[in-house]
Design brief:
This protein is of the alpha+beta class. It has a single domain, classed as Gcn5-related N-acetyltransferase (GNAT) (Aminopeptidase, 3-Layer(aba) Sandwich), CATH 3.40.630.30. The chain starts with a strand and ends in a 7-residue tail after the last strand.
């Protein structure tokens, strides 16, 4: 596997990968998530400008099998999206993307928002060293992200913010 910065030409691939990665949500009673349209390549382009769009390739010059998007939010690096093609799930690709991001940033922490009860969401991130944040720990930027998520209808299912302090060591 190879992890590197995404290119502009790969943005349409990320959209297709996101559709495929969303499909398993239908099987757990969340068809709205499975059917939600991913952001367009134009909407994803700002992650390229920030240098926080990563892709995982099955092999050097192989197909894109996963990606991660992040952006600075209140001093931390906020993971906006991690997606792995379902045909490649459970092979450490998401973990590798997160560890690559963690190793390449000077930010003191990574944050994300996620579904509390989806096995490949909050429980997975907890295994990677993220901890749930209490409401009083939310920064203004995280509160704004949660507000936008609620407007988009994501609060129909329990959601939470999580944070992982970066101490320079990968998490097992």
């Amino acid at each position: 596997m190879q992890i590197r910065a995404a290119s502009k030409d790969e943005l349409p691939l990320l959209c297709a990968l996101e559709r495929a990665a969303g499909a398993p949500f239908a099987a757990i009673g969340m068809p709205e998530i499975a059917e939600d349209e991913p952001p367009t390549p134009d909407e994803l382009a700002h992650f390229l400008d920030a240098g926080t769009a990563l892709v995982a390739l099955a092999a050097p010059d192989g197909p894109v099998v996963g990606y991660l998007l992040a952006e600075p939010v209140d001093g931390a690096l906020h993971i906006e999206q991690v997606s792995v093609h379902p045909d490649r799930a459970r092979r450490g690709i998401g973990r590798a993307l997160i560890e690559h991001l963690a190793a390449g940033t000077d930010a003191p922490a990574l944050t994300l928002t996620t579904f509390a009860d989806v096995p490949w969401n909050a429980p997975y991130y907890a295994r990677l060293g993220f901890r749930p944040l209490a409401d009083q720990e939310l920064t203004p930027g995280l509160r704004e992200i949660r507000r936008r998520e609620a407007e988009h209808g994501l609060d129909r299912w329990p959601r939470l913010c999580m944070r992982r302090e970066l101490d320079g060591r990968p998490h097992a």
